[in-house]
Amino acid sequence: MTTILVTGGTGTLGRLVTERLRADGAEVRVLSRHARPYAVDLREGTGLASAVAGVDTVVHCASSPRGGDEQAARNLIAAAREAGVRHLVYISIVGVDRVPFPYYRAKLAVERLVEESGLGWTLLRTTQFHDLVLRVLQASAKLPVMLLPAGVADQPIEVAEVAERLAGLAVGAPAGRVADMGGPEVRTFPELARAFLRASDRHRRLLNVPLAGSAYRAFRAGGHLTPERAVGTVTFERFLAERFPG
């Protein structure tokens, strides 16, 4: 039986990847900072060797916008090489090579580490999950006026669809960088905000706020979008209907 290790296996994506792999009959180890028996902080690496021992494939979902992704990847790759792991699958973000946003730069650096790891590897980039867009809008809605980045659109995708794709890649052969996955629609932030307000039965004024900097300019230019790969099927409204029933 194939043994697969999922880093970040209790997170938004990793949890669904784990469920899908187990449903398909794989033996899955869940690695996170608090999930026993494989409670490992990848940035420190303590306990990582035992977690990867006997593993065929690693699906690397663990990530943090607070930093540390590059060191975590170095530790994981070193342990995977030592353990003879044959396949490393990494989830990244559309536009990491076009948008000079600090978190994107870190994800791009990890991509390069994966590509140069000497392991068999597969890399999938997707657009932002519905869940993240919802969190951003919920935070903005705490104010009487929702402040939105002027001129920026997004292409949110359903995390369950990404999990299905990632699980399929994990049980296959190393494939290098595969085709990007984008959500079904490119939507402006005012459109997304109005959909959220309707679904959550709230009323807020919207205010488009121009921002500064090269990252903002790249977001305005659509560097994080992939309209030619709009393969997702779940719209933001459908996602919201499940989150705010009735």
From TrEMBL:
InterPro entries: ComplexI_NDUFA9_subunit (IPR051207), NAD(P)-bd_dom (IPR016040), NAD(P)-bd_dom_sf (IPR036291). Residues 8-131 form the NAD(P)-binding domain. This is SDR family oxidoreductase. It comes from Kitasatospora aburaviensis. The lineage of its organism: Bacteria, Bacillati, Actinomycetota, Actinomycetes, Kitasatosporales.
